[in-house]
Write the structure tokens for this entry.
Amino acid sequence: MDSIYDSLVEIVGSEHVSTQPEELYIYSFDLGTTEPHRPDYAVAPRTTGEIQQIVRLANREKVPVVPLGGGLSLAGLAVPLKGGIALDLKRMDTIIEVNERARYAVVECGVSQGQLTSYLERRHPRLMHSEPGAPPQATIAGNVAIHGQGDLAQPYGFNSDMVNGLEVVLPTGEVCRFGSCSISPYWYTQHPLPDVGLFLGWAGTTGIITRVSIKLFPCKEILGAGQFVVEDEELIPELVHRITHTEMAHDLVAFSQAIPPFSSGLHHLTISLSADSEKELDFKMELIFDDTLGEYIRRGDGGFLGFTRGQQRPQVSKTSDWRKGGGFEYVGSIMPVETYPECYRRGREISERHDIPYTVLGRVIGMSHAMMFSWTYAFNRADPETVRQAREALHESDDLVLELGGTIWKPGVYGQKLVMERMDPNTLNLMKKVKQLLDPNGIMNPGNWEVGR
Amino acid sequence: MTLADYKYADMIHRCFRCGYCKFPVNWMDVNSCPAYARFRMETYSCGGRLWLTRAWLSDEIEWTEHLAQILYTCTACKNCEEKCPLSFNVDILNMIVAAKAEMVERGLVPSAVKEFLENIERHGNPYGTARARRGEWTEGSEIEQYQGQEFLYYVGCVGSYDTRAQETARTLGRVLTRSGVSFGVLGSEENCDGNEVNTLGEEALFEMLAEDNVRKFKELGVTRVVALSPHSYNAMKNEYPRFDGTFTSFHYTQLLRDLIIGEKLDVSGGFSASVTYHDPCFLGRWNGEYEAPRRVLRSIPGVELVEMEKNRAGALCCGGGGGNFYTDFLGGSESSPARTRVREASATGASVLAVACPNCMTMLEDAVKAEGLEDSLAVKDVAEIVAAACGTA
Amino acid sequence: MDVVVCVKRVPDASGMDALVIDASRKDIERRTLVAKINDWDEYALEAAAQLKEKAGVSLTAVTVGPDEWDDVLRRALAMGADRAIRVDEDMLAADCHAVSTVLAALVRTLPHDLVLFGAQSEDFGSGQLGVMVAEMLGIPHAALVVSLEVGEGSVRVDRELEAGALESYAIELPALLTIQTGVNRPRYISVGGIRRAMKKDLQIMSVSELGLTAEMLAPQAVLERLETPPRGKEAELISGPPEETAERLVGILRNAGIL
């Protein structure tokens, strides 16, 4: 152990390595219900070169490496399940480049969502990126590594679809560039081969992303959202389908929650619009709220709660304090939009059975191609019983996703097993080959996506 | 004390470690918790400190020097309270101070903190310099002893003993004299205001100091206090009333503002420079005073006031609070908050970094030297700029 | 196990640039100085307090001095001492032999397996007290102890020699140790802790209660005079740009045969 510590100190400097109990304690936790697992070292590198050296050392000594961005996966994906090196990437926080014309930003792996939002607002106000609902400490790289989505999901898709290129340190220590950046100074598109897909959605088990180029989108003068509410959950898929057809919104979220009590059983659609002029805004609002939703309003099936100008970015979430308990975790899934009613009904039932006020949400991806549907379970960190109930509810929700024909987004170990059990065996076998090829010593975030090693 | 006895047992678990507390008001980076900026390990963020406190009080982890150091790197800057969106945010600092108080009671503070506190108890200042020398800064000036004048000019420990801050103390004295303000100082009779002692968790020592000061002020018939340091201002305005302190407290920038508006202070002599103003935590986030110093600076002809991107409630702490101007847990690196702040000031293109606190003065002036910016950036107290403009520099 | 710690109250000289010899020329001007516990004794007390916490020993703190000296005993009580005893006698002008006689007489009346002293005092710094008391008590001692470990009926110590060399001993109890600084990290004693210690018992004794007479305390060494050392030459201040000052400094050091 000592010689590994000495080597790490040589690589990053003694101030950026710790084996002290305090650091090991903090870095053993995910903020959700995952049980803590202690790392042996907490390390905070500053450069790609340092990461390479750390990875090579890890291979020599057969020590696991667990990359950590904002630590907000809430599925335990950065918990050192087998100990080893907790690699805190947040010191690599430089925004390398913003290319206005080609609308992309190249950032180091530690750049947080909030930092990028703020930077664009101040320096490039006509550009924005798709910001996930996580607290702004979440990183751009971490979000695409877990195949995330953000507030430009409809119409632009998953955040991991917005990646133009990556710089990655392989588990064997080589640095690779994927995308146009591998042959050109520009990071504007994904091709040529091989595919960035080797690292997106793999939750850090195939390598460490050190740089990412993310697509940026037009940011208009007026940002706001209209709220539409219905009582009948069966209407949601149809409404989503019709609203997406207008191609006017840039974010479409359906949610329902038990608190406040008056909203229980109601389904809200938050329809985000942007415009550079009142004319544009009026046009979009007319197409959506008059032409599309008008009939529902007239029939009494739905109500328009008004359009609010201004969008809080970064978004500020108070979910963790709903039970004055400092904790929550959710099962995220990618579902067909038509499953919304069943997801809601079954999710509500699971919550109520576990004594947790229900909270469900569906964010539409692309042109209603799918939705990210989440079941959120708040718990009280000081009351282990509520943690246990939340964990049970989460596992039941994982089961539910697959029962309804969906797929689990960023599953924790429990959900990973369920997915792998159902996966096409040839695909599973390919996963195994890929992992063994990239990570022969099995050091990269082990314990996750273990395909029958 | 176990977790059950801890005053904030019902809320310390509510921290989610979501990380809002590291950001400034404008979200531009994660370096606005001074300790986190310095060390960039999760343990040093506010959330880390709260989780570790809870773990320590629940016996999940043991006390170590490292744990004590982590706790005492908190400079009490209140950026975390400013940014935490949850309803217990008003008590975040109270939770940290209560944890420090527990360490104090068990005697488990870092050596530098022990020295700091012992020096204050024995000598009335953290440096350990004799009480008898506290009034030496007035030598050669026209500043008089307090004998019932309208204002007690309260200087504080840093202003009384630190050579650079002493210059500021004298300069402010000259400005007040020039403005015809009736004031006096306590000199070697002055005792520490106790603000840092309070944020370090030594409650009983703070009480001793506050009671002693209140009694002394009463005996002398003090009704109005003007403080050089926002730390003193904060203690006297917010804490001394519960010790029956019935006088009114001002920070000197508030008094200067009123004197300029009331035309008792003539700054028409001007001061030609581009100036960027650094908001001290104990004047800004702690007491909501962002405008008085700016009003003063803007009224001086020739001053071109430029703002750093992180200003007002988003200002980055200089790293001197919580006793750190003495214990120096946050120094020794280019990622120290003081050096980071100086680079932010330099980036505005200003030639003068204006401060309104002697702690900020010492921290930032040292940082300017460490950054090698002595030739392009001068650190000046607002009083010094005013003095130049009214011809009493 | 019974542990006795002897502590002294000394002036805090850190606040003054220069001490001033008083009119009698046998003492310094103390009126303007704050008093505190002797630095070395703080380490001895901390060692004793740690023993109490780990092994549950019975701890008594003692001193010889006038009533202002109660405050160092309060500190000991705040650190966990079970008992505190002050022999009420101002012995600042007395010699080490006299003070040792009083302390030895006191310690003899107490159960004592381990007696701890600081290695020396900050003011007169003779370093004799602990050693003399050990001889008077007829028990073995080790001076300048930098580490100690108590076992069954014995104590293992390391003594500091020169140039970092250490000497190790195993000593049978009862024994006396004089403690060097750096042996531990003395804890901070909060004002609240001292306040609470005010409620604990502090026993006062007189010299006669210990069966001591004036003859027994007659000085064997008499302080004639206290002087400040003669002022040396003024220091030379070298100023200028770094390249020049460095060159000058190198020249000076070469000429002095240092480089």
Remarks:
- Residues 101 and 202 of chain B are 6 Å apart (CA to CA).
- DSSP finds 17 helices and eight strands in chain B.
